[in-house]
Specification:
about 140 residues; mainly alpha; two-stranded antiparallel sheet; about 75% helix
Length: about 140
């Protein structure tokens, strides 16, 4: 790694952020593709309406993953896109959080909640830090 005065260089920090975002994209891409292919069977089944809705929402999840991937090449310049996508993910997470008042979901859904309300906002904040380092000194 390149260090300057005890701090990670802005280029190194950018590469770490790009790597973290790419790794985080594995979740919506794999869950989205799985839901599109398997439908409601991915979560134990349901009727035709539930299956259709599951496949649609899974397509949206997959598209979110692709949108996050598109930010990676010039991530230091993609703050608006990062914030917009994070807003969508956090909003979905708040809906999932509200559902906890009714019933505790299984571990995969709890992990999804952690991604939605923890990892995604954290990556968004980190992107802001990287952008500031690139454009403010």
């Amino acid at each position: 790694m390149h260090y300057s005065g005890g701090m990670m260089s802005k280029e190194t920090e950018k590469r770490w952020l790009q790597t973290a975002v790419a790794a985080a994209c594995i979740v919506p891409l794999s869950a989205g593709l799985g839901g599109m292919v398997l439908g409601a069977d991915m979560l134990g089944g349901g009727g035709a309406d539930m299956d259709s809705h599951m496949r649609y929402l899974s397509g949206l999840l997959f598209a979110l993953g692709l949108c996050f991937l598109s930010l990676i090449p010039q991530i230091e310049r993609k703050g608006a896109g990062m914030r917009m996508l994070a807003f969508i993910v956090v909003t979905g997470g708040l809906g999932r959080l509200y559902g906890l008042a009714h019933e505790l979901p299984g571990l995969p859904m709890q992990a999804a909640l952690a991604m939605e309300l923890g990892v995604t906002p954290g990556l968004c904040l980190w992107q802001g830090r990287v952008a500031r380092r690139f454009f403010n000194g």
